Amino acid sequence: MIGLLFAVVVVGVMVLIFLGDDFGMGTSLPERPDGEGRTSIGKVAARTKDEVCRSNLRQVNMAVQIEQNSGNTPSSFSDLPGIGPAMQKCPIGEEAYYFDAAAGKVTCPHPGHENF
Predict the structure, then answer these.
(1) Domain encompassing residue 115
(2) 63-93 core/surface letters (b: 16 or more CB in 10 A; e: else)
């Protein structure tokens, strides 16, 4: 009976750790500007999507630079070879990336992604 009670307590603590935020231990991740990720696991998943967004923006910006260096000035995403629909929007909020053809820069409008 004591072993069963101990197992229930261990499972309960594990649920609090993985599904709770910090339950008073002061180990929570910082709040996000977009409000994504209410639990510890959710915050880590949102940070992972942040990295996917950052990677997409790097790749798209490199494609723009390559096109500009070859003498072609792209006017839209469809002019860039190898940039599919999934790489034209933020993986978190699904907002379309903003393409400034004059500056040759692609940015993400999602809150917290302004500096990517």
Answers:
(1) 50-116
(2) bbeebeeeeeebeebeebeebeeebbbbbbb
